[in-house]
Design brief:
The protein has 200 residues and is an alpha/beta fold. The chain has a domain of 128 residues: HAD superfamily/HAD-like (Rossmann fold). Helix content is 44%, strand content 20%. It contains nine helices and seven strands, in the order E-H-H-H-H-E-H-E-E-H-E-H-E-H-E-H. Helix 3 runs parallel beside helix 5.
């Protein structure tokens, strides 16, 4: 029995923080897990910038409302869900993800949550579990699933390497060069073909 685990940002939707950096005119917020492997360190860095700039959840959600899935993502996800179980495992937050899940047809997502003050200031974040992507894949394996995983960033490498089949998708040249043993794809058609072949 197979279950496919996908990253969200960079794989199915554009990077939320890059979109917000552009909308707010704050280039420092463009840093993502493609640049900083330590997610908690990255979030603390983002929180400091938001506090300095007096920006909160409302402003970020306003940007998220304008984000559309990557062209072809919903069709890819619909087809994939017709042949296998799919879970999106993301380091994003429920407060960010819901509008995007609606646009993707409400797939299952496991993610984290923000701590938000009454005035909308983001005061902290609660990670669902340590090393959530790898931990989730191992938990699925422990209940009888063979996992197939795909993502684009450093924080996806654990689940990709631990799965029966794992693929980089729309990743950076550096990650591709650092992990030449991992198949890397750029189109949904290529990724779909690889997932189907892994399930045979």
């Amino acid at each position: 029995m197979y279950i496919t685990c996908l990253d969200l940002e960079g794989v199915l939707v554009p990077e939320i923080w890059i979109a917000f950096a552009e909308a707010s005119g704050i280039p420092a917020l463009k840093k993502t897990t493609r640049d900083e492997p330590d997610y908690e360190k990255l979030m603390e860095y983002r929180q400091e910038i938001l506090k300095e700039q007096h920006l909160g959840l409302k402003e970020i959600q306003k940007t998220i409302a304008t984000i559309e899935p990557i062209p072809g993502a919903k069709e890819f996800l619909d087809e994939l869900r017709s042949i296998t179980q799919v879970i999106i495992i993301s380091d994003t937050f429920t407060q960010f993800a819901s509008p995007l899940m609606k646009k993707l047809g409400w797939p299952t997502i496991f993610c984290n949550s923000l701590e938000v003050a009454g005035n909308g200031e983001i005061t902290g974040f609660k990670m669902r579990i340590a090393d959530s992507k790898l931990t989730t894949v191992r938990a699925l394996q422990s209940i009888g699933y063979d996992t197939i995983a795909s993502g684009d960033s450093y924080n996806d490498l654990g689940m990709i390497k631990a799965s029966k089949a794992g693929f980089l998708f729309k990743t950076t040249d550096k990650i591709r060069a650092d992990y030449p043993q991992l198949p890397a794809y750029e189109t949904y058609d290529e990724l779909m073909a690889a997932i189907k072949a892994a399930m045979e």
